[in-house]
C-alpha cells in the first residue's frame, strides 16, 4: 500500500484505513493485492464516512 495509512482500525465489518491529506484534502492511495484463487472478489469502499460502494473484480486463472 502506498502511502502507508496513518491509522488502521479493525472491526467486525473489516478494516478502516485513515490517511492524512494535504491542504486540498486530495490523496491517491494504491493498494497492491494478490488473489488467492480465481473467481469474483467483492468488497466495499467508502470515503469520508460516506455510503459504502460495492466493488467487484474478476480474477482470472
Description:
This protein is mainly β. It has no helices and four strands. It has strands at residues 7-11, 14-18, 39-45, 53-59. A hairpin with a 2-residue loop joins strand 1 and strand 2 (14-18). The chain is globular.
Topology, pairings included?
Blueprint: E1 7-11, E2 14-18, E3 39-45, E4 53-59
Low-confidence stretches: none
Per the principal axes of the C-alpha atoms, what is the gross shape?
globular
In the sheet with the most strands, the strands line up as 1-2
Helix content: under 10%
Please state roughly what percent of the residues sit in beta strands, choosing from under 5%, 5-15%, 15-25%, 25-35%, 35-45% or over 45%: 35-45%
Radius of gyration over C-alpha positions, nearest whole angstrom: 14 Å
Biggest sheet details: 2 strands, antiparallel
Average pLDDT: 90
Number of helices: 0
**H and E order:** EEEE
Question: How many runs of DSSP E, i.e. beta strands?
Answer: 4
> Which secondary-structure class do the elements indicate?
mainly beta
- How far do the termini sit from each other? 24 Å
Key attributes of the depicted protein:
mainly beta, 4 strands, 0% helix, two-stranded antiparallel sheet, globular, 61 residues
Can you give me a brief rundown of this structure?
With 61 residues, the protein is an all-beta fold. It is 0% helix and 39% strand.
